[in-house]
């Protein structure tokens, strides 16, 4: 019997997850399929009940449901509890267990480069949904301090408190000043949507140096303006597609119980760009 998986969210038509997972299923000759299922805000409870009725095997969760989905879970893993959001769910006979693969997805490209984060200073640009997973990831890696630059101070202060709860020193910085201070940080991470579809750069890059590690979680385009300009300054670059691929692979492994086919997923992902 074919097992069905899905991604739920709104909007959903831009998602690359169906292509990634269906390529993996085909490569490993698994009798599985993966669909995109749009669920508007407010319809989540009823839609999850419907997914249970059809025997959905598992699903990914994206905006705007990552936090709200938590109250509909029967069980959560440690990362899920820490971040307060889920992006991967397993359905076992109607019982839903939530996982968060954003944390390990974010850290995977850093670890692949053998970068030691211990005691380092981080500039995190943005305080939206992705910021919590990034802060949790850096807390796991024992960074010294996370400075959060954001358009609105209130959202940033929420993330500052979250970082402190995880034992990491943290403070707010005005977004307009962030670029000027870039050389003070080893890591500069863009967790905003600025740069999506090639539009704009979240901060000034003139003070980014060869010692900087610039990580842009925007994955489309591959070369955002931030990455292009940071490259010209000689910085180490980490691409958004690397995080997307790593978290998708972890979701696959949670559902299927075997390693995801890295090359098949990578070729599919980069082919979409």
Brief descriptors of the model:
single chain; 273 residues; alpha/beta; Rossmann fold; 2 domains; six-stranded mixed beta sheet; six-stranded parallel beta sheet; 10 helices; 12 strands
Structure summary:
By secondary structure, the chain is an alpha/beta fold. The chain has 2 domains: 3-100 and 243-272, 3-Layer(aba) Sandwich (Rossmann fold), CATH 3.40.50.10860; 103-238, 3-Layer(aba) Sandwich (Rossmann fold).
Tally of DSSP β-strands: 12
- Write down the domain tally: 2
pLDDT averaged over residues: 95
- The CATH topology assignment of the largest domain is Rossmann fold
Structural class per helix/strand content? Answer: alpha/beta
* Shape by Cα distribution: globular
By CATH reckoning, the class of the largest domain would read Alpha Beta
CATH architecture classification name of the largest domain: 3-Layer(aba) Sandwich
Order of helices and strands: EHEHEEHEEHEHEHEHEEHEHH
State the helical fraction: 25-40%
What is the terminal separation in angstroms?
33 Å
**What is the CA-atom radius of gyration, in angstroms?**
19 Å
Describe the largest sheet: 6 strands, mixed
CATH superfamily of the largest domain: NAD(P)-binding Rossmann-like Domain
Topology record:
Layout: E1 3-9, H1 17-27, E2 32-38, H2 44-53, E3 58-61, E4 75-76, H3 78-83, E5 88-92, E6 95-99, H4 102-112, E7 121-125, H5 129-140, E8 145-150, H6 153-165, E9 169-174, H7 175-178, E10 187-190, E11 213-216, H8 225-232, E12 236-238, H9 240-256, H10 262-272
Helix pairs in contact: 1-10, 4-5, 4-9
